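Subject: for your reference before the review

Hello V.,

The reviewers asked for a structural picture of the protein, and I figured it would be easier to keep everything in one thread rather than splitting it across files. Below is the amino acid sequence we used in the manuscript, unchanged from the supplementary table.
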Amino acid sequence: MKKKRLALKDIASKLNVSITTVSFVLNGKGKEKKISDEVIKKIQDYTESINFRPNLVAQSLRTGKTKIIVFMVEDISNYFFAKLARIIEDLAYDKDYKVLFCSNENDDKRSKELINLFYERQVDGFIIIPSSGIEEDIKSLINNRVPVVLFDRYFKSLETNYVIINNKVASQNATQHLIDNGFKNIAFITTDVRQIQMLDRLKGYEEATNKANLVSHVLQIPFKDVDSERGKDMISYIINHNNIDAIFFSTNYLTQSGLEVLKETNPALINELGIVTFDDNDLFRIHTPTITAVAQPLKEIAQEIMKIMFDLLSRDDLNLSVKKIVLTANLIQRDSSISK
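And here is what came back from the structure prediction:
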């Protein structure tokens, strides 16, 4: 027979204290509630001796809070998202919240399934990089008074909290940096997704090349092919058939694919082409040559996201003062973008 799980009332009865006192101590509020050191120690020693673990389901039913936040991104293994997740995890932990991490693979069906799953589990809030077709699902969460913060991208027609960077300006500055270093045939390699952050990066590149009276060379790889041989073949073709002298990759994973293509087909080009990537990575710091990168302010992004989330979690009216935060990315200049 399964052993009965102890409840707070069992501990209170055993130690001859109130259930409220046990609850305060187990939630780290003993000192705050002026409970004596002797009683705190007695409760802590006893619960440790019986290996007591609070019933989180019962706790959430009492408080209306699960103390869990969902962090949904394209791919949690991606360097950028993984680094950001680690910072957010620490910020949440400091406020006694836990974070569930998941990847939607930029797929609407998967995004919808994950949102429905965690909504049914009554998590307290969502931090989401949305795929392009889930605007109504985000709207539904907000209408159901669930705290939501979007980042990296947003929906223009949806009034919601978000944290982004100024992608167009960052892309324009990176392209201008290549132009200033004497590069004239600059390829922009991106994905075909119709999402605002990618479109803004494309706009920044095109504005810079148009202003300099240069021809634009844009390759939009289908998202499903970014890691495939077909995608690599597309990168190889644009490099070898357009007299390209520089490449601006719109994401770090495209940069990694592009570097693999160069290494496999023409290693000498790695030192001859100008190369810039959007989003930094440890790989780019130690690569030969080191790779110039548009670096997003990870710590600042995480802090702004969590500041909004904790504000939403602490109030009843989620429709007040929607926050739309736009941060600045920095161009880290390295060997790959200097004049050859």
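For the response letter, the relevant points are probably these. Residues 79-94 form the longest helix (16 residues). The chain has a mean pLDDT of 90.

Happy to draft the paragraph if you're swamped.

O.
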